[in-house]
Design brief:
207 residues; Vitelline Membrane Outer Layer Protein I, subunit A; four-stranded antiparallel beta sheet; 13 strands; 42% strand
Length: 207
């Protein structure tokens, strides 16, 4: 009995080709994978509703409005003035929980923002306290002063006055509204520093 080779039919060959092509397509096609990044968490802020304090120290002249602000979640802790030729503020960051560090304020842990000129002498609130207003010395022009200081979170304790940078003329207070903190400053200048006052914000201690 001889061996007889049986060739596949044309129908079988066609079916095998289709199966092979389909299997190759399934194996070789890449699978798209989308890796999403974690959504950014919105930065919270402890200070809101900033406004220019109505009361100011100085006179009524000048024609140029100037302003400087602390970064978000920073607050004024220091003040700088050089007669009628310069004024600035020093801001310090709050702790992550919205409190102020119980360590002395210095130029090393604060940042300075000049509104006008480049004054070199700085004064600071007492340890742990923040500014709730300015105390300005003026003789028709703002030329000396310091800060009114209280303690977070209530900002309702007895006001302490920072050391003062000596000027000339009468001393007067330019406070924020009760329970608000200083988060910037505004000034009006002409040929000299005419007047200066705080920019104030509502403090919100988030739980």
């Amino acid at each position: 009995m001889g061996f007889r080779l049986r060739l596949p039919s044309r129908t079988q060959i066609s079916r095998w080709i289709v199966y092979s092509l389909f299997l190759g397509l399934f194996v070789s096609l890449p699978v798209a994978v989308t890796i999403g990044s974690t959504p950014a968490v919105a930065a919270s802020t402890y200070f809101t509703n900033q406004y220019d304090a109505v009361n100011y120290g100085g006179g009524g002249g000048g024609d140029t409005y100037r302003a400087a602000n602390c970064p978000a979640n920073w607050v004024v802790v220091g003040f700088s003035i050089a007669g009628t030729s310069g004024v600035g503020i020093l801001c310090r960051a709050l702790n992550a929980d919205g409190t102020m560090a119980n360590t002395p304020h210095t130029t090393s842990n604060s940042s300075k923002y000049n509104l006008y000129g480049a004054p070199g002498t700085n004064v600071f609130c007492p340890t742990g306290k923040v500014a709730t207003g300015f105390r300005i010395q003026a003789n028709g022009y703002a030329n000396g002063g310091g800060l009114l200081c209280q303690t977070l979170p209530a900002l309702q304790d007895e006001i302490e006055i920072s050391p003062l940078i000596a000027g000339s003329g009468a001393l007067g207070n330019a406070p924020c509204n009760a329970g608000n903190a200083v988060t910037g400053a505004w000034a009006v200048t002409g040929a000299w520093l005419d007047r200066v006052a705080p920019r104030c914000s509502l403090y919100n201690l988030l739980q």
